[in-house]
Write a structure and sequence with these properties.
The complex is a heterodimer of chains A (314) and B (429).
Chain A lengths: L1 H7 L16 H19 L12 E6 L5 H12 L3 E6 L11 H9 L5 E6 L4 H8 L3 E7 L5 H15 L6 E5 L6 H12 L3 E5 L15 E3 L2 H5 L4 E4 L15 H8 L3 H4 L7 E3 L12 H5 L6 H19 L2
Parallel strand pairs in A: 1-2, 1-3, 3-4, 5-6, 5-8, 6-7, 8-9
Helix pairs in contact in A: 2-6, 2-12, 3-12, 4-5, 6-7, 6-12
Chain B lengths: L3 E10 L4 E9 L5 E5 L12 E4 L4 E4 L1 E6 L12 H10 L2 E6 L10 H14 L3 E6 L13 H6 L4 E3 L8 H14 L2 E4 L4 H4 L4 E2 L2 H6 L3 E2 L2 H16 L3 E4 L5 H12 L5 E5 H5 L21 H12 L5 E3 L7 H4 L16 H10 L5 H8 L1 H7 L14 E11 L18 E11 L2 E5 L1
Parallel strand pairs in B: 1-4, 1-5, 6-7, 7-8, 8-9, 9-10, 10-13, 11-12, 13-14, 14-15
Antiparallel strand pairs in B: 1-2, 2-3, 5-16, 16-17, 17-18
Classes of the chains: A alpha/beta (314), B alpha/beta (429).
């Protein structure tokens, strides 16, 4: 209980979690410390708290999602909130209702938290201007996915003790990836050095201005890295317009045990999921518990989301 | 109408290279009778209406070469009455209206309709454009000859580009014979697909799909190549980048004849002003880097750019209150055109005479209309402004029906005091 008191005593916590770009180092660290305290709880047999008892959390998902959605769902429930998940993929917007109208409708039901996933960059920002409750970004377009970056950070801290001084490679479709962007901001903020590796057609313009080094060669990009984050490559990008073929991509950018050797000896592998085995990652490597942190990422995701819900809920 | 004399006024009229303090005498038909320092008050009759302008500046009424009026089809965004009120409050007395209404102005009967409608509802000179292609869909050219005969001053698909190179070459070839003005929006669709912002750091941070300035440059290069083959009256609506300017420079020095416009937005704002998804700054062509903005100012200075337009696009709140990628493109600006342009004088970017030139005589020459001048015998369309008057832009005070200004809360210096249309006072504060 001591930790709980300490955290809630920190004043001026911002109302919304829209992106890592809007966070200060202190805020990010506060979330990570809080999240750490939930790891044990989640492993115990009695997982329920009542921190958010009486609070209503709406998960508003405009894009299909399994792990993020279920993770937020569980996180809210474990904190005692009433959680409603709305799958909007085939819903009101198709009938012509705008995001703002949907927001106003939900707002009238007095939720305390809205967790939103949307295909358009900036949708959570727009939503946050129009509702009276806390908005948490669960991924918007290709802009940000702050809780993913936070759970990645927690996973790294859990294994390596610290992020400061580490060298982290992010590899794959950087152009379309919100996970990459949020991770670049957060890892930089926490003192890591970040390399991004991608074929030129999947590398955003001026990415270096975000504080990273960019590479098109896995060997150079992975050199000396402690962490290798692989990104998912979506099927529609592989058919000729961005890349010639799946085969060619795997040849140059797929992570194999051989390519992993370019990184440090004790380098660890991460992936936000879902994985395309044999496209961006060798299937055995993905399951190798000595190097792959994929399962841990999912586990700690719940803890991080619990921390965010707790700290941001008024 | 009574004769009028405007006294104690600094007259800046680039069409006659005039910048002097004097008087303007307007005859009873609303024409300039005499102007300058040599006019004598004793020249006028006793019944004359005398207006002391207290040292303010008078220029020819501004010609805005690119503005959208919502009629027909989008009356809820803007109509002739609200557009002309906004224009006159900004010292604009002549408006070139865009044809992307609903239905599109691509045939003779539509032209008759808007000319009649404009005459009844608007207190401003209207110069309508028709589309270059039917339905502005880039596939078949419109009846240039018939439309011109009905009063069309120029042809533009507005925010759309004729992509088909063969058709574009025929348009130029055909237009050259009829002496009609073709106004192109330069954007390669394949390169700009899904984009809503300039490509670069801002787009990368905001997670938005950006468009490179090559999309603009490639069409300009194509059209100017065609133009060397088929010389017609050709105007590039708006350019937005340093790269485009370099192409223009090269072609002008090779003797190719054409004209170029720029939006006041691209001269005064850059991509960083978009901040966190301010949809009122989603424009086409998009706001680009500060380097591009400075290059465009140089372009105006060195006469590579001929006109400054407001690119006035009224949009209702519903079309703008959406995620950035989905929201409508454009901002209003006709009322703030001059004041925002004067900012470029106050911050030492451009000389005053150059700004006035790009707003008056230059567009008049390109359009071949008898406006933009205060020479003896010309219509007394006059804009009088206080060069120093400070004010703050507030959307709710603007006269347009839609309030989507890109410069909300901007502190400006210089404001229109009085606007005359054919000798009649149509706006004053």
């Amino acid at each position: 209980m001591a930790t709980e008191k300490k955290v809630s005593a920190i004043k001026n916590s911002p109302r919304h979690l829209l992106g890592i770009q809007n966070l200060s180092v202190q805020e990010a660290k506060k979330i990570l410390i809080e999240a750490k305290s939930f790891i044990k709880l989640n492993r115990s047999s009695s997982k329920k708290l009542d921190v958010l008892r009486g609070k209503t959390q709406i998960n508003l998902f405009f894009e299909p999602s399994t792990r993020t959605q279920s993770s937020f769902d569980l996180a809210g429930k474990r904190l005692g909130a009433d959680v409603m998940t709305m799958n909007m993929v085939n819903s009101a917007l198709k009938k012509g209702e705008t995001l703002i109208d949907t927001a106003m409708t939900l707002n009238a039901m007095h939720p305390d938290l809205i967790v939103i996933r949307h295909q358009d960059s900036g949708a959570p920002n727009l939503l946050s201007q129009k509702v009276n409750c806390t908005v948490i970004n669960a991924g918007d377009g290709r802009r940000e996915h702050p809780t993913q970056a936070l759970l990645d950070a927690l996973t790294i801290i859990n294994r390596k003790g610290n992020i400061e001084g580490l060298k982290i490679a992010i590899c794959g479709d950087i152009l379309h990836s919100r996970v990459a962007r949020s991770n670049i901001y957060l890892m930089n903020m926490l003192g890591a050095e970040v390399n991004v590796i991608a074929p030129k057609t999947l590398m955003p313009t001026d990415i270096e201005k975000l504080g990273v080094k960019s590479f098109t060669d896995m060997k150079k990009g992975l050199d000396g890295c402690d962490i290798v984050m692989m990104l998912r490559l979506q099927n529609e990008r592989m058919q000729g317009s961005f890349l010639p073929s799946k085969r060619e991509y795997y040849e140059f950018f797929g992570l194999t045990p051989e390519k992993l050797k370019y990184a440090k000896k004790d380098a660890l592998l991460m992936h936000p999921g879902p994985m395309n085995r044999g496209v961006e990652i060798d299937t055995k490597l993905a399951d190798d518990i000595n190097v792959s942190l994929v399962k841990e990422q999912v586990e700690l995701g719940v803890a991080v989301r619990m921390a965010c819900l707790k700290l941001y809920c008024k | 109408m009574k004769e009028k004399i405007l006294t104690n006024v600094r007259i800046i009229d680039p069409s006659q290279k005039m910048d002097e303090i004097g008087n303007i005498i307007i005859d009873d038909k609303g024409k300039i009778k005499s102007i300058g320092k040599n006019t004598k008050i004793s020249d006028v009759s006793k019944s004359v209406e005398k207006i002391d302008l207290k040292g303010n500046i008078a220029i020819p009424g501004i010609i805005d070469m690119k503005a959208f009026v919502g009629e027909p089809g989008y009356e809820y965004k803007e109509n002739f009455r609200t557009l002309s009120q906004a224009a006159l409050a900004g010292g604009v007395t002549s408006i070139v209206t865009m044809p992307n209404t609903k239905p599109i102005i691509d045939n003779v009967s539509m032209v008759d309709f808007i000319i009649r409608r404009g005459r009844d509802k608007a207190k401003v000179n209207l110069f309508p454009c028709a589309s270059i292609t039917r339905q502005a869909d880039g596939s078949q050219m419109t009846e240039f000859g018939l439309l011109k005969a009905r009063g069309i001053v120029g042809f533009s698909d507005v925010n759309k580009t004729v992509q088909n190179t063969e058709l574009m070459s025929r348009i130029m070839n055909y237009a050259s014979d009829l002496d009609v003005l073709i106004m192109q929006h330069a954007e390669d669709y394949e390169l700009s697909k899904n984009s809503c912002i300039n490509e670069g750091e801002v787009a990368t941070r905001l997670g938005l799909h950006g468009v490179s300035d090559i999309a603009e440059k490639i069409i300009i290069e194509r059209d100017l190549s065609l133009l060397s083959e088929f010389p017609c009256r050709y105007h590039i609506n708006q350019i937005s980048s340093k790269n485009s300017l370099n192409v223009i420079k090269k072609n002008k020095s090779n003797g190719i004849k054409f004209s170029t416009g720029v939006s006041i937005n691209n001269l005064s704002l850059n991509q960083n002003d978009i901040g966190e998804f301010r949809t009122f700054l989603k424009l086409s062509p998009p706001l680009r880097s500060e380097e591009d903005r400075l290059a465009l100012i140089d372009g105006v200075k060195s006469d590579l750019i001929d006109v400054i337009v407001s690119d006035h696009i009224p949009e209702d709140e519903e079309s703008k209150r959406l995620p950035f990628a989905q929201s409508a493109t454009g901002s209003i600006g006709i009322e703030t055109l001059l004041s925002l342009a004067l900012e470029l004088y106050h911050n030492d970017s451009l000389p005053l005479e150059k700004i006035i030139k790009c707003l008056t005589i230059n567009p008049a020459k390109i359009l071949k209309i008898d406006k933009g001048t205060l020479k003896k015998g010309a219509d007394a369309d006059i804009c009088v402004f206080d060069l120093e008057k400070p004010w703050v832009v507030k959307a709710e005070n603007l006269k347009s029906k839609s309030k989507n200004t890109a410069i909300e809360n901007r502190k400006l210096q210089g404001k229109v005091k009085l606007t005359l249309l054919k000798g009649e006072i149509v706006f004053s504060i």
